[in-house]
C-alpha cells in the first residue's frame, strides 16, 4: 500500500501522469467496496471547518493513511479523514482536511481526490476554505461565495492538469471561465436569504503558501479585483470542473488582509482556526440545507 510514497523522494514532483485512470479507479473502487452509500455530492472541509464531517450520520471514516495512494494531512485544523455517510439523509463523501502545495505536495497530488470523487459517481463538489479578506468592505466572519479565481500557481507547471491527458477524466484544454456553477451560487444565496444570513460574493485568489502575502502582493491583488485570498480551493475547483462535476465554493473570511505597510497587525493560523470555529455552525447550517436542496 502507498507504494508511491515510499518510492518518491519528492512528492512535489508527482504529476498528473502518475495518477492514471486505472490508479485513481483502484482508489475509488477500494472505497466503494467498503461502503453501501453511493454519494453524488462531495464536500471538502477547509481549515477549522471539519466539524461538518462530524454531522455525517451512519458514517464510515477512513483515515487518509488507510486509503491506498492517498496523501496525508499535516496541517492543524485538517484532521485527515474521508467520511462517507448521510448528511441529513443525503449521501455524501466528505474530506475532513485537504492537501496543500505548501505541505510539499504537487497540485496534481493535492487535487487527485477530485478524480477519485468523479470515479465514485460524484456529480457536485462543494469546496469550503478559510481566506484573508481583501475587499475593504469585508469583515472577519463573512462568508463569500466564490464566483471566480486568480491562481498564479496554476499559470505554471504546477497546474494540476499538466502531464499526459486522459480524456476519460476530461478534455486536454478545459475552459476555466465557468468553473463556479451559477445555478448553485444562486441556490445558495437563496438559502442564506431565507435564513437572514448575510453573504458576500467575490473573487478568490490562491497562492502556494505557507507564508501569507506581502503588502504589495495584496495591493496588486486588490487592483485585480480579488476579494479574498487563500492557499487552496482554486486547484480543486479547476480539476473538479475539468472532470465534468459541478463546482460550488465558499470562503470564510477568517482574517483581514493587511494592506497598510506600517500596520502592526499580521495574519496567523491560530486566528484563522479561531474564526473558523466561531463561524462553523452557521456554515454547517447553510451547507447542510444546500446539500438537501441540490440532492433532488
Ligand atoms: O484553504 P484552507 O485549507 O481552508 O486553509 C487556509 O488557511 C491556512 C492558513 O491559515 C491555509 O491552509 C489556507 O489555505
Ligand atoms: N494566503 C492566505 N491564506 C489564508 N488563509 C486564511 N487567511 C489567509 C490569508 O490571509 N492569506
UniProtKB/TrEMBL annotation:
Pathway the protein takes part in: Purine metabolism; purine nucleoside salvage
Keywords attached to this entry: Glycosyltransferase, Transferase
Annotated CDD domains: PNP-EcPNPII_like
Keyword check for Glycosyltransferase: yes
Residue stretches making up the Nucleoside phosphorylase domain: 40-292
Substrates-to-products reaction catalysed: 2'-deoxyguanosine + phosphate = 2-deoxy-alpha-D-ribose 1-phosphate + guanine; 2'-deoxyinosine + phosphate = 2-deoxy-alpha-D-ribose 1-phosphate + hypoxanthine; guanosine + phosphate = alpha-D-ribose 1-phosphate + guanine; inosine + phosphate = alpha-D-ribose 1-phosphate + hypoxanthine
Enzyme class: transferase
Chain residues that bind a purine D-ribonucleoside: 213, 255
InterPro entries: Nucleoside_phosphorylase_d, Nucleoside_phosphorylase_sf, Pur_Nuc_Pase_Ino/Guo-sp, Purine_phosphorylase
Protein name in UniProt: Purine nucleoside phosphorylase
